[in-house]
Design brief:
- The relative contact order is 0.21.
- This protein is elongated.
- The protein has one domain.
- A hairpin with a 5-residue loop joins strand 3 and strand 4.
- It has two helices and four strands; from the N terminus they run αββαββ.
- By secondary structure, it is of the alpha+beta class.
- Strands 2-1-4-3 form a four-stranded antiparallel β-sheet.
- The mean pLDDT is about 85.
Length: about 70
C-alpha cells in the first residue's frame, strides 16, 4: 500500500511539471511592446520559443528585441 501511494505521488508530480497550457511571451522593441500567446506549451517549450533577438537594420544600427515569459 505504501509503495502504491509513492507511485501515485510520483505520477502526480510529473504531471504538474509537464503541464501543457497557454503561456504568454511578452516582447519589446524600442517603445513597442507586444504579447505572443503560445498554445498548449510546456514551460520548457515556451521558454525555448520566447527568446530575445538582435536585428541588423541594414543601415548600420542593430535593433534588440527583449522577450520574457510571463
Amino acid at each position: 500500500m505504501k509503495k502504491l501511494l509513492i507511485v501515485f505521488a510520483a505520477i502526480g508530480c510529473i504531471s504538474f511539471v509537464a503541464c501543457k497550457k497557454d503561456r504568454v511571451c511578452q516582447c519589446s522593441v524600442s517603445t513597442i511592446t507586444y504579447k505572443v500567446t503560445l498554445n498548449d506549451a510546456t514551460k520548457r517549450q515556451a521558454k525555448d520559443a520566447c527568446i530575445s533577438r538582435s536585428y541588423d537594420n541594414g543601415n548600420g544600427t542593430i535593433t534588440k528585441e527583449e522577450c520574457e515569459l510571463k
